[in-house]
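Predict structure. Chain length: 436.
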Amino acid sequence: MSVACALLGLFLASAVEGRAQGAPDSLSRRDSAAIRARVRSDSAARVRAVADSILLEDDPDDEIVLDAPPATKQSITMQSLNRGYLIGSNNISENVGLFTYRWSGPDWRVLLSGSPLRYSGNGTTITGLPPVTGRVDWTFAKGDTLRVYGRSASVPATLDSMQLAAIGAVSVSTLDLESFSLGTPTMLGTRAVVTFDVGDVQLGLHGGLEYQPRPNGTARVYWTGSTVLGGASLSGLVSDVRWTGALDVSHSSADSLPIAGDSVGRNLFQGGGTFNASLQFDGPLTADGEASGVIGAWYQRPFGNDRPDQPNRLLPVGDTYGAFVSLDLPIGKLTFSPSVTVARESASDDAAVTRLLKYQYDAASWAVNTGASLTIPLGKHFDLTPEFGATFGGASARFTATTSPIPGRRPGRSSTTDLSAGIRGWWAGLELTINF
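Prediction complete.
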């Protein structure tokens, strides 16, 4: 299996928490488990801040497309997904309708996906549409791939104060909501992946460029401007266990979108870039390979983020790390797939906002995301997958603002705000995949 495609599946997954992908007939149980585990591990932990999932999103099925027969194949996936979270006294719900169309041939792939949603929280209801995604891939020798892709602006394309407060009441990187991607402009991008054999392992290198036009108006928006991204991975086999270690870096050039009378600006993007590292193992649990498992860990560190504390977040952006495990267990013709992900994010800063004002904070959140799905084959072309899960964790922070004394006029002042909230949540969904 090409490490180039493994790179894309590992680092650039875009699926939501517990979204178990129905596998085509040509895929083994082991391949199906690897897909589901990568989907859950990436999204349930949500290691990226808000729209970073848009910046780096991709299709977790990529790594197995090249294993399919050379014939043209198509699939349609439809899913209803419902979530509810309680963070402190803030109770929110999200209802999402997911649709994905895939069309693939021997050396090309086409994807189109969208997910209308309804979000309710903090006294506000948002009915909208995260960015609709389209892309085309061309695959060359050994899995080297060229990709051209684009995303529409979300609906709404900008966020007002009520919508910001509703999303910001629960937005932490250890939880997953499709609504985190609202308020995002149109984006165009391209990527390339090349693969090399280095002894018994494979080296994969990838790079890309993305561009979002500068948004007009005065409303809040998550705008990344021009983005450069790249990375490398090593992959190999130890007995029947596949391992993959990878590093990835991205950096965006967007400014704060300053407006008259507002020194902070209207851009919700925290600025700068992110560094990612991960290690993953997947392989059979039984001699016949019918039962399998995936285990992994990751770490993400933002850098150059001059605006980490944004109103669409409960806590400022910080370092995120965690681990996950997923099993794929056959029950007759059915496949039962339990999973668990543990994630933590922490952030701190001590900055001089002005000559007379200092702002300091220490913040952290953690979450344990559990889930299970049951894939039920309905004939040759259909898979039905009910799924469910639960989340628990916590969030805490201390924000301190200090003003320096002015001799002869006033003494210095300090004010502190503390946040402490438990996290409880659930999700449930039903997915239908049609392969033809």
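Summary: The first helix runs from residue 3 to 11.
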